[in-house]
Amino acid sequence: MSLKTDGTIFIFSSPSGAGKTTLVNLVSKNKKFTTSISHTTRKPRSNEIDGKDYHFVSENKFQDLIKADQFLEYAKVFSNFYGTSKKLVLEKLKSGENVLFDIDWQGSKQIKDQTINFNILSFFVLPPSKEILYQRLSNRDMKDKLIASERMKDFYKDVKHWIDYDSVVINDDLQKCYNQISKIIDNFLLYKKKIPYNRLMIEKHIRKLIS
Ligand code: ADP
Ligand code: 5GP
């Protein structure tokens, strides 16, 4: 294992609906990074494909994978299980590929604890406002407005974890947010330095979000 030749771990977390999956897909497409495909016990959304967006599995199968120590990390989020397959991800990193993780704050903590020998850069994505977040969740989960409301309930709990991340970005205009993330990633890959973000501005934004 070598910090110089191994790939880098890029973690993206956010309150549900802020846009991290959209941003991860953009980074993956533009920078040709691998995205870790998680296992989940959640039912697929109408536009999701098994093996591409997630490996959709039963709860029994998920429990078997836990017992067989197949996960690098796993967590229960919104009453479903989600987990990152250990073998595939470590193989990719060791072969020099940069890997993107779209995972919650619990998974992020576990990865940071367990992969100390890899370079890690973590992003926390914030919505421009609570109203826009609700709109995004409602548009995405057209079939069930209840899902959007349930996820909004966890917003206050989830958002407080911004403090544990290397970079915190506001996903208002998608392209602008992507450009900001892209610069931070390029800088990290070139110089292994984490660009400090404007903490005062983010704190002010968080205060507005939770008020
Ligand atoms: P998350 O992965 O954080 O739960 P998604 O990436 O699934 O969120 O985004 C939630 C919804 O918001 C999706 O329908 C997505 O297309 C939309 N979306 C994401 N970013 C933006 C943006 N900057 N402006 C408008 N809509 C967005
Ligand atoms: P969704 O159901 O919207 O796809 O995802 C719900 C939450 O689970 C999101 O915060 C997402 O990042 C997180 N998630 C997705 N895959 C994993 C995973 O493998 N591990 C963990 N810990 N969280 C995940």
In summary, what is this structure?
About 45% of the residues lie in helices and about 20% in strands. It is an alpha/beta fold and about 210 residues long.
Key terms for this structure?
9 helices; binds guanosine-5'-monophosphate; five-stranded parallel beta sheet; 18% strand; Rossmann fold; 211 residues; 45% helix; binds adenosine-5'-diphosphate; alpha/beta; single chain; four-stranded mixed beta sheet
Q: Could you explain how this protein is built, in words?
A:
The protein is of the alpha/beta class. The chain has a domain of 143 residues: Rossmann fold (3-Layer(aba) Sandwich), CATH 3.40.50.300. The strands form two sheets. The chain has a five-stranded parallel β-sheet, sandwiched between helices. Helix 5 packs antiparallel against helix 6. The model has no long low-confidence stretch (mean pLDDT 94).
The CATH H-level homologous superfamily of the domain at 9-37 and 97-210: P-loop containing nucleotide triphosphate hydrolases
Q: Any idea of the CATH topology of the domain at 9-37 and 97-210?
A: Rossmann fold
Task: Tell me which ligands are bound.
Answer: adenosine-5'-diphosphate, guanosine-5'-monophosphate
| CATH architecture assignment name of the domain at 9-37 and 97-210 | 3-Layer(aba) Sandwich
Helix content: 40-55%
Uncertain segments are none
From N to C, what is the helix and strand string?
Answer: EHEEEHEEHEHEHHHEHH
What's the total count of β strands? 9
